[in-house]
Specification:
36% helix, 6-stranded parallel sheet, alpha/beta, 16 helices
């Protein structure tokens, strides 16, 4: 078995909250050494984003909450006050010996501390310096702050999400999880990996990577935006209905909901047979997908009546054999109870100082030769400060204690 893909890569991570930490967690999972810099006393802002929190050995809640825990495994936490000159010296000293420098401060903020790209590049010309921001390094919005929901709104995602016009509760709706943060994290890791490869094959050239949530959400709208680019019309909200094959959507069964997507005419005919209404497939209004699209409301109403006559499990079982894409609408508990999810090992347990078996969701990548086998729990605030500064910078216990007393670390 080979070493992990990024073994030997060193990352200095000054990102906080979610998008940046998701990216550095991904790289840490792949074997990179990730040193997470946090503010002394408070740490990553995500630690204060609300319950549920872990409880320490005395039963007291602490700053290890779900928001922080989901994005910070396989890292070392080092506390450094970058507002102090000695803190800036520590960051620069660590930056001399890393491959990647990550940050998600407002545009221009780190220049005040001598930690911007040009400053770090002078001490490490090979550095891959990645800036993750809301609106990017250029453009009129560059100085603005923002969070996931703002970008869902401004980038157009909310305009195509939610109940259809005319339905109860119609109007723009936010996607449940912080999906733009997560997608930006993936883009960030892709960008860093690409820059590392470029450096390897191009004489050690480093570079500055500019990634932002606004660009990410716009790019993620894919075929929705392409519709607008072709005909100049924004696609309507379609609720749970699909964007291609008809019929597609959530159908209420006798005991729950089922998501069905008909992708072609053959699937439609086979579904009609399963539902006990094979004659629908030869009805002139429904023969071709374009016919069904014109008569969507009618076929959706017919299917809704047919699906209501039996259970979700019954229909999933009956539709599986003829290869019809469908599945139950699960809550999180049902997801983790699913036999396939269990077989894929999506839920894992790690040893945490406050929780012997802390549950996490594993990295979604699966390798044949370099499997991700090590999952270390997200670190406590400053858990690795003394070890990292001692081993990497040669700071002795006396100096470390002095820095701690003066609030530098």
């Amino acid at each position: 078995m080979s070493a992990l893909p990024l073994s030997g890569i060193k990352i200095l991570d000054l990102t906080r909250v979610l998008a940046g930490p998701i990216a550095s967690q991904m790289l840490g999972d792949l074997g990179a050494e990730v040193i997470k810099i946090e503010r002394p006393g408070t740490g990553d802002e995500a630690r204060a984003f609300g319950p549920p929190y872990l409880r320490d050995l005395n039963g007291k809640e602490n700053n290890n909450n779900s928001f922080y825990l989901c994005a910070n495994r396989n890292k070392k936490s080092v506390t450094v006050n970058i507002a102090k000159s000695e803190g800036q010296e520590i960051i620069c000293a660590l930056a001399r010996d890393v491959d990647v420098f990550m940050e998600n401060y407002k545009v221009g903020n780190l220049k005040r501390y001598g930690l911007d790209y040009e400053s770090i590049k002078k001490i490490n010309p090979r550095i891959i310096y990645c800036s993750v921001t809301g609106f990017g390094q250029t453009g009129p919005y560059a100085p603005r702050a923002g969070y996931d929901a703002v970008f869902q709104a401004m980038g157009g995602l909310m305009s195509v999400t939610g109940h259809m016009d005319g339905e109860l509760g119609a109007g723009p709706m936010k996607v449940g999880p912080s999906i733009v943060d997560y997608m930006t994290g993936l883009n960030t890791s892709i960008g860093i990996l690409s820059a590392l490869y470029h450096r390897k094959v191009n004489d050690g050239a480093g570079q500055h990577i500019d990634i932002c949530l606004f660009d990410t959400v716009i790019a993620s709208l894919s075929h929705h935006f392409q519709v607008f680019l072709i005909n100049g019309k924004s696609p309507p909200r379609r609720g749970t209905r699909g964007n291609g094959g008809v019929p597609a959507g959530v159908f209420r069964c006798a005991d729950g909901e089922l998501m069905l997507v008909i992708g072609n005419d053959g699937q439609f005919a086979r579904t009609c047979a399963v539902l006990g209404a094979p004659e629908l497939a030869s009805n002139s209004k429904f023969i071709k997908n374009e016919d069904r699209a014109i008569n969507e409301e009618e076929i959706m109403a017919i299917f809704a009546e047919l699906f209501s006559k039996n259970t979700v499990e019954h229909w999933v079982s009956e539709l599986e054999e003829p290869g019809i894409p469908c599945g139950p609408v699960n809550d999180f508990g049902q997801v983790l109870d699913d036999s396939h999810v269990q077989a894929r090992g999506m839920r894992l347990k790690v040893k945490h100082k406050f929780e012997p078996e802390l549950s996490l969701i594993r990295n979604a990548l699966t390798f044949s030769e370099t499997p991700i086998t090590e999952y270390r729990a997200p670190p406590l605030l400053g858990e690795n400060t003394l070890d990292v500064l001692g081993s990497k910078l040669g700071y002795d216990p006396t100096k470390l204690e002095d820095l701690k007393k003066r609030g530098v670390i």
